[in-house]
Write a structure and sequence with these properties.
heterodimer, A: about 80 residues, alpha+beta, Ubiquitin-like (UB roll), 5 strands, globular, B: about 750 residues, Aldehyde Oxidoreductase, domain 3, Aldehyde Oxidoreductase, domain 4, 3 domains, seven-stranded mixed β-sheet, 21 helices, about 30% helix, about 25% strand
């Protein structure tokens, strides 16, 4: 199981939990599991998120490996200028 | 590609990287030979012009273009009715911004467009288009737009994150942070509570938006335009117009600045629609007034901060509530501001709440570290004020609270190795920090944080028969990427800089490249360039091995040549790149290397700025006396450009802090759509801005490169506000600090 930290306002979609656990070994499995296990997150997941894995930010690379002890944090989809 | 898959051995000895060769676009730009968006022409070309709403908010009851269409020389008129009724959700607002639907949502909103034989006819035709408007109440201020009785732009209102009872102009709400703010504030010896406001500012690129579109009846289309991303233009226009991406070829022109403002489309779908209808190429060029009224700006903001500090300078809690208006559609960068506001600091108790609000203003576009400068202005001003009240050195306070490796960032993740402390230490050691100040002069410092991106990238490197090299990349060069890619290719191949030329290709020539944004190009395209060069080197080693009749594993590439290596390789004279290229037809055909990657996992970036100002107490005018930028570049590939990015960010920040401002009248109409009344800093306003490059290698890039393009605009607003506040003897909490506002503050303080 991977612990996933949510940003504050997302916790309102997970009954107030700021951290959830899902079964995932890759970024794709993580996003699928979050949408399946926590349907309240789905609107935001559909709009797009960035994911910090051990301090580095990923957007789309499905097969980025995630270890059980990885630090995983959901972030708003990053926008640059 | 995950970071762990990369060759993370950072190269440290360079022959080309780190030098300052002449820029490859220099001659073109100083002689006028460079072709910008408005320089493109085509046989039979028509001139396109846009009719724009004079109302900030109005229902469009009807549009009658029959008189315009009947005018001799007019070849096409388009309105929203000429675009598909249904488009994919992710481009619906983009289309509505390019061409209004049921309502005009801001002064300058496009409502119709014509294509005619000449600009004069096109202008005349615009006057013949009859639009029946029903003016509606409008709102342009972010706080006013949040009021329960504010005029509503979009009946549907915000998304599921907006609590009940809020104005429907609130589109979303975000919250970040950890700890307990009240408990943290209770531990403080002093607590400050302040509100800050910043005005909307424009990216202020010199080159207005321009494009030339040619769409045929066969579904094929070509578009030339100034943009930060030709693939974004292709995909967006294809989605809006129902074209296939492969049939629309987009070529990016030379670009006269973007700063984020050219990461979307404005004219391009309209020009394509006109061309399709007229059956002729159509060129469109915005005037400066159109640029200011209908493209670009960044959000204006209203931010409340609460900050607690102990007597010895430890920040016990930081809270900020940020309200950004992003113009007429959702998507202000308040989420980025909320994530970055306290990111430079290691705080136990931190929270930010962000509100994305719509108003009757042009849709905000990205602007260099979108959302972060306004947040930093508020937080860094509060830290400065509290430090001074407690008699503490503002650099010491920042160092005491600085985020470092292992800090849990205010937006969630734990930082890996980062360079903030290095910039603060460099600032403290710099002679600027201890230089004397005169009467009415003040010094300010501030820190800034920004994310850097990677993203989809595709490059191709081709070796010509004479041994010169062409590198094709798909990202418009807004900050020197042709120079830096040329240098990285030359470095890797072991050949001189002038043996490589880098070109920016059209969308048909390479796979997808994400927009030039997020400070991503030197990092991600550089990484792909190095990998493409390595692929070409492997191929050239293989060709040499064939010639020598040895295993390719027994060949290495050193100093621009293949060389036999190892005990069984035998004695062979090295074969240079030019020698291998010359016989390529005999050894298997042309030599090329290419690399395609989604280069994710970029690191973050920090900067510290220091500025001295002088305030004229009679006029309120502020003079920038001295300015120093300290920023980590990882590895400066071409230091001139890195310094230019540092200086450019500071210069834009100076404009944002002191003068630049979208001014709306009570009628909701923009009062200053021109560079006479919207004042950007000019050379005579600025001292030489001193850039101090720190080089802490980024382990995620083979040469240690870090993006540098955006972070430099994050600290200036606060650094200058802190300096002006010190010089004026009164705290400035609203931007711009224009002469009337500074004078009023001085008088207010004197009266008080």
């Amino acid at each position: 199981m991977v612990k996933v930290r949510l940003w504050g306002s997302l916790a309102e979609m997970t009954d107030g939990r700021t951290e959830v656990e899902v079964e995932a070994g890759t970024l794709r499995e993580l996003l699928d599991a979050l949408a399946r296990d926590h349907p309240g997150l789905k609107p935001q997941l559909d709009r797009g998120v960035s994911v910090s894995i051990d301090g580095r930010v990923y957007n789309d690379a499905w097969f980025t490996p995630i270890a059980p002890d990885s630090e995983v944090v959901l972030l708003r989809r990053l926008k640059g200028g | 590609m995950a970071l762990d898959d990369r060759d993370t051995a950072t190269k440290l000895d360079f022959k080309v990287v780190g030098t300052r060769p002449p820029r490859p676009d220099g001659i073109d730009k100083v002689t006028g030979r460079a072709r910008f968006g408005a320089d493109m022409t085509a046989p039979g070309m028509l001139t396109g012009r846009v009719l724009r709403s004079p109302h900030p908010h109005a229902r469009i009851r009807s549009i009658d273009a029959s008189k315009a269409e009947a005018l001799p020389g007019v070849k096409a008129v388009v309105t929203r009715a000429d675009f598909p009724a249904e488009v994919p959700e992710d481009v619906a607002d983009v289309l509505d911004n390019c061409m209004a639907g049921d309502k005009a949502l801001y002064d300058g909103h496009a409502v119709a467009a014509v294509a005619a034989n000449s600009a004069a006819v096109a202008r005349k035709a615009l006057k013949l288009i009859e639009v029946d408007y029903e003016p509606l109440p409008h709102v342009t201020d972010v706080d006013a737009a949040m009021a329960p009785d504010a005029p509503v732009l979009h009946e549907a209102g915000g998304d599921e994150t907006v609590p009940e009872g809020h104005s429907r102009n609130v589109m979303s709400r975000v919250q970040f942070g950890h700890g307990d703010i009240d408990a943290g504030l209770a531990q403080a010896d002093r607590v400050i509570e302040r509100s800050y406001r910043t005005a909307a500012t424009h990216q202020g690129y010199i080159e207005p938006h321009a494009c030339l579109a040619s769409a045929g009846p066969d579904g094929q289309a070509d578009l030339w335009c100034c943009t930060q991303g030709q693939y974004m233009v292709r995909d967006t226009c294809a989605a809006i117009l129902g074209l296939s991406q492969g049939q629309l070829r987009v070529t990016a022109s030379e670009i006269g600045g973007g700063f984020g403002g050219k990461t979307t489309v404005f004219l391009e779908p309209v020009a394509l629609a006109l061309s399709r209808k007229a059956g002729r190429p159509v060129k469109m060029v915005m005037s400066r007034a159109e640029v200011l009224r209908a493209s670009g700006p960044t959000s204006s903001s209203s931010v409340d901060v609460r900050l607690g500090m102990t007597r010895d300078g430890r920040i016990t809690a930081g809270f900020a509530e940020l309200r950004y208006q992003g113009g007429a559609y959702p998507g202000s960068p308040v989420d980025m501001g909320s994530m970055s506001a306290f990111a430079p600091y290691d705080l136990e108790n931190v929270r930010t709440v962000g509100w994305d609000v719509v108003t009757n203003r042009p849709k905000a576009a990205a602007y260099r570290a979108p959302g972060a400068p306004m947040a930093a202005f508020a937080v860094e001003s509060a830290i400065d004020e509290l430090s001074k009240e407690l008699g503490l050195d503002p650099l010491d306070v920042r160092l005491k609270n600085a985020a470092r490796e292992g800090t849990k960032a205010s937006y969630g993740p734990t930082f890996p190795a980062i360079g903030l402390e290095a910039t603060l230490e460099a600032a403290r050691a710099h002679p600027h920090w201890s230089a004397p100040l005169g009467e009415n002069q003040g010094r300010g410092v501030a820190c800034g944080f920004w994310f850097n991106f990677g993203g989809n990238t595709c490059v191709s490197l081709n070796v010509a028969p004479d041994g010169t090299v062409t590198l094709s990349e798909g990202n418009p060069d807004i900050g020197g990427s042709r120079a830096s890619m040329t240098m990285m290719a030359a470095e890797e191949l072991g050949i001189p800089y002038d043996r490589v030329r880098t070109v920016i290709t059209d969308t048909g020539s390479l796979g997808v490249n994400d927009v030039t944004d997020g400070s991503r190009v030197t990092f991600a395209v550089g990484l792909a360039t190095i990998e493409a060069a390595r692929a070409a080197k492997r191929e050239m080693c293989r060709r040499a091995a064939m010639i020598w009749g040895i295993d390719e594993e027994a060949v290495v590439w050193e100093d621009g040549a293949a060389r036999p290596s190892g005990p069984n390789a035998g004695e062979h004279p090295p074969m240079s790149l030019a020698e291998i290229a010359a016989i390529a037809p005999n050894t298997g055909g042309p030599i090329a290397g290419h690399h395609e990657v989604n280069a994710e996992g970029a690191g973050v970036s920090f900067a510290t700025h220091m500025v001295d100002t002088e305030v004229d107490r009679d006029t309120g005018a502020v003079k920038i006396l001295r300015y120093t930028v300290f920023q980590d570049a990882g590895k400066a590939v071409h230091p001139d450009y890195v310094e230019g990015q540092f200086q450019g960010g500071a210069a834009q920040g100076i404009g944002w802090a002191l003068n630049e401002e979208y001014i709306y009248g009570d009628d909701g109409v923009l009062q200053n759509p021109g560079f006479l009344d919207y004042r950007v800093p000019v050379a005579s306003d600025l001292p030489m801005i001193e850039p101090v490059i720190l080089e802490i290698p980024n382990p995620g890039h083979p040469y240690g490169v870090r993006g540098v393009g955006e972070t430099s605009i994050v600290p200036p607003l606060a650094a200058i506000a802190n300096a002006v506040s010190a010089a004026a003897g009164v705290r400035m909490t609203q931007l711009p600090m224009s002469p009337p506002r500074v004078l009023a503050a001085i008088h207010g303080a004197d009266d008080g």
